[in-house]
Every structure is written in structure tokens, then in C-alpha cells.
Amino acid sequence: MAKIFCVANQKGGVGKTTTTVNLAAGLAKIGQRVLMIDLDPQGNATMGSGVDKRKLALTVYDVLIESATIAEACVKSEKLIAAGCGYDVLGANRELAGAEVELVQLERREKRLKLALAVVDNDYDFVLIDCPPSLSMLTLNGLCSAHGVVVPMQCEYFALEGLTDLVNTIKQVHANLNKDLQIIGLLRMMFDPRITLQQQVSDQLKEHFAEKVFNTVIPRNVRLAEAPSYGLPGVVFDPASKGAQAFVTFAEEMVERIKGM
Ligand code: ADP
Ligand code: MG
Questions:
Q1: How far apart are the first and last CA of the chain?
Q2: What pairing do the DSSP bridges indicate for beta strands 88-90 and 75-76?
Q3: Taking a C-beta distance cutoff of 8 angstroms, is the pair 23, 247 a contact?
Q4: Distance from the CA of 45 to the center of ligand 2, in angstroms?
Q5: In this structure, are residues 130 and 49 in contact, taking their beta carbons and an 8 Å threshold?
Q6: Taking a C-beta distance cutoff of 8 angstroms, is the pair 66, 93 a contact?
Q7: pLDDT tens, position by position, 202-244
Q8: Where are the domains of the chain?
Q9: Which DSSP state fits 136?
Q10: Is the CB of 109 under 6 A from ligand 1?
Q11: Which is the CATH superfamily of the domain at 3-258?
């Protein structure tokens, strides 16, 4: 049975997409079968996995409106397979922006992705969903499908405040729509230990959220930022870089953390 995780934070630029593609590649590298779903119309996770969003015949949009199955719409990236980090990609492009409006008129609108995923449950160990920077109908489809949420965040001044909204949304979805849903963990992203404020916020996070804070910390690393322009996750683009190594360690921590879940 696949374990399904949303990578979510309604704030933009905190590292959701970077986390999704590098965790996917890291998990694939350690032998897990992974499906990556891009739920953001920007399609960055699609492009960052070596799949050209402009050339996709079918996307997650077709799955949401039930005109295609996941098996029909997902693609493989040859570049990632060649690097030994292959995972399946259910891509997105601008077409997905329309789904927001269309879904509102449809039945079971928040459960569409969950129903589609039920069919491929045995084909994967992990499904990772890259959510858009909003608490929209798309994000809601992600949250209704998932066993848990991975929350990447930067250790900045307003970080804790922003978390309150997300935590409340997750609680509401848990209470009303998906009783499986839980926060798997908070991932400290783009961390620089030399910055005192980041240390302080990191300490506060551990005080408030205790073991929900992942042990692995992802450092600020330019190779992770360069990789998308080559259509690759950092884990594939420069496996020796500090950022790539941190993501492989994070993949191992995820495998450990979900044991018994
Ligand atoms: P989101 O999906 O939350 O909007 P992204 O993953 O697109 O965030 O990251 C925002 C920007 O920060 C991107 O340009 C990305 O390359 C860069 N970035 C993300 N993580 C790191 C990191 N650990 N070190 C350096 N740059 C990073
Ligand atoms: Mg993103």
C-alpha cells in the first residue's frame, strides 16, 4: 500500500517544490517506488523532474476531471531513470488553473484525486504531492488524498505565525474530510546555522512541535537552486553537493518515520 504525502505550505518560495522533487529522487535512489504528483499550475515540479510541461498530452487536470486515469496520464523521465533515481510523474501545466473553477461545479469535488489514487495503491511505496501556495480546492484535493503532510519552512521571523493557518486547515480537514490526515513533520529548509535568528526560530519550533520537527535540516545550497534549470532534482544534478546529500538523508528519515504508520 502506498503512503501518500502532501508537501504543503500556503506560503510561496519556502521550498515545497524543491522538497518534493528531491525527496522523490532521494526515495527512488534508496529503492522506493515513487509517484510524484504536481498539483501546482506553474508546473515547476514537472519541469524540475525533467518532463516538459508544454508537451504533455495528459496531466493531473485530466485525472481530476475524470477523463484519464493516473496510469494513463503519468510519464517517466528518461534522464532520472538513467541516473538511477527514476520516479513516475503526474505532471501539471497552466491548464490546471481552470480546474479550480470547474471542480466547484462537480460532485465529490474534493475527493477526485483520492479516488484516482485508490486504483494505483499497489504500484508505489510513496506518492508525493507538490501543492500550490494556497489553501485552494487543489490543495484540498491533495489533503483529502493524503496520510500526512510534510511542511517545508524557512526559519524566519513570521514563520510560526504562518504555520497556525496551515495547522488549523489540517485540523479541519482531519475533522471533516480525512481522518487519516496528520502532520508528518516540519522540514527546516534553506537553513544557515550562522544566522542567529534562524537558530532561535529553529529552537522555538522544537519547543512547540517537539518530535514533529524532522531531524534532517536542508542547508541553503546553490546547487539545489541551479538544478531546476537543467530539468533535474539536485539529488541527480550534483549528488555530491551538501543539499543533495541532505535530501538522501531526509529520504532515509522519511522511510524510518513512517514505519508502523
Ligand atoms: P515553493 O515551491 O515553496 O514556492 P521552491 O521550491 O520553488 O519553493 O523554492 C523557491 C526558490 O528557492 C527556488 O528558486 C529554489 O531553487 C530555491 N531553493 C529552494 N531550496 C533551496 C535551498 N535549500 N538552497 C538554495 N536555494 C533553494
Ligand atoms: Mg512550488
A1: 11
A2: antiparallel
A3: yes
A4: 7
A5: no
A6: no
A7: 999 999 999 999 999 999 999 999 999 999 999 999 999 999 9
A8: 3-258
A9: S
A10: no
A11: P-loop containing nucleotide triphosphate hydrolases (3.40.50.300)
